[in-house]
Structure formats: structure tokens, C-alpha cells
Amino acid sequence: MMKVVLFDGECNFCSQSVQFIIKRDKRKQFKFASLQSTSGRELVEKHNIPKTIDSVVLVDNDRAYTKSSAVLRIALGLDRYWKLLYVFLLVPVPLRNIIYDIIAKNRHKLLKQNNACMIPSKEDLDRFI
């Protein structure tokens, strides 16, 4: 079973989120692909995800999750206390996604746009597809 996190490779906030996941995923269960990469585009097409997606995407067990559902399912796979965020799946999706959308809309303001690609460390290189 492969879990793949699709992210906006041109967004500094998204790239830093990937680094956050890597540091807290000691079991190395997550793989990563930017939405702009060939692998990312193939997964978007395979799972009928809109090409205009403006969300983190988690592909897990051949199912795609977006927005807050993706974030909370990723949190469940992280080490330590991050799993506790999974309880927010009890909150109705529309309400969770309102909060997600506010953060997503302002993500470029939260951190400056990144003009350079994220380069994974040698230890993490095999986690990018």
C-alpha cells in the first residue's frame, strides 16, 4: 500500500508542509510528488482529480482525499501527538473545508513564493516519485 502526498511544487508553504511531514514520518510511509511533475499529473488523471486542484491531495489505497480530509489522514500517519488531529474528522466536511480554504487562499501570504525547487536530502530522495 503506497500513500502519496501530492503538493503544489511552486508554493513555499506547500514545500515546507512536505518537509514537516518528512520530519514526522519516521516509518517513511508517505511518498511525495508535486502536482506539476509527470507522476503527479498521472495520479491526478488516474483518480479523476480536477486538473485545477488547489489542495493537498493524499492518494491512499487507490483513493484520493483532498483538502481537510487529506490533511487529517496525513496527520493520522505522523509520529507522536499529530495523530490526535484525526478526531477532527468528526467535524462535518463543509465546516472543515471552510477553514482549509481560508488557509489555502492565504498560503502565499503566509510564506513568500518560492522561486526555487525543493531539493530533498539524499536520505529522503527515494520518497519523491
From TrEMBL:
GO molecular function: protein-disulfide reductase activity
InterPro entries: DCC1-like, DCC_oxidoreductase
Name by which UniProt lists this protein: DUF393 domain-containing protein
Organism (species): Ureibacillus endophyticus
